[in-house]
Amino acid sequence: MEIQKILTRYDSYLNKGKLKDAEVLLLLSLQDAEEEGLYGARLTLLNELEGLYRTTGRARQAIEISEKALALISVLGLTGQEPHAVTLLNGATACRAAGENEKALQMYRRAEQILCDLGQEEGYSMTALYNNISQAYLDLQQPQQALHYQQQALTQIRKFTDTKAEEATTQISMVQSLLMLGRSEEAGHILEEAMAYYDTAEGQEDPHRSAAYAAAGEYAFRMGNYAAAEQDLQEALRLSLEYYGENDACEVIRKNLKAVQQRKNPQD
Fold first, then answer.
1. Within its chain, how far is the Cα of 255 from the centroid?
2. Most exposed: 77, 183, 195, 256, by fewest CB within 10 Å?
3. DSSP type of residue 256
4. Is the full-model pTM beyond 0.70?
5. DSSP states of 11-68 as a string?
6. What distance separates the 2 farthest-apart alpha carbons in the chain?
7. CA atoms within 13 Å, Cβ hemisphere of 222
8. Spatial contact of 95 and 60, defined as CB atoms under 8 Å apart
9. Residue 190, C-beta contacts closer than 8 angstroms, at least 6 positions apart
């Protein structure tokens, strides 16, 4: 089994919005890996499948897949190693998507400890971990804690090269925290910097662009610019459907869009 070719094909399906084809590819490849006793390949494929289920609104299925992946960690003798931390991070993010934020934070902390024990405090994996911890705190309505981890993530990201996409993703999360904290001016400056990336050729192909427009819509709404808010949220919804299909994020965007339209047209 040539796992890299499978992952390249999988990424191609995702980029084209062929989510069903992507899922079928992973499921068939997992079956082949199991029949051939390729546990390492199974772990890689399970982590990818968990991410697919999570981003397409199937959090419970994502949790089930992450549990299978974690069970493989001990089989492969990887307990306490980087793949263990990555698999914990993925599983925690699935828990967060299912609303189990306290459990998610416990798993994130375990992943953080493993990375620190491995001397990877400055490694790239830590940036993803900080970003995910911040999202859990946002879900728990603790924006100050979320902002703390977002700032740590941004500091880490900027130590590496070619990280404009990751910087922009983190900045969009920071916008959310700053708006919750009432720091709209700061949020506006950071949003402008992030959106500059999403206006580039690379940024226009980035699936996180939907979240960027959702944040732009929230910012415009708080600034009283309801026409711009409506336009941004409509674009966020279009992109979310294009990249991920119908999921929980779409429902949130629709709810926010309805609130904007009611404020824009109070007589309706």
1. 20
2. 77
3. H
4. yes
5. HHHHHTT-HHHHHHHHHHHHHHHHHTT-HHHHHHHHHHHHHHHHHTT-HHHHHHHHHH
6. 65
7. 18
8. no
9. 171, 174, 175, 178
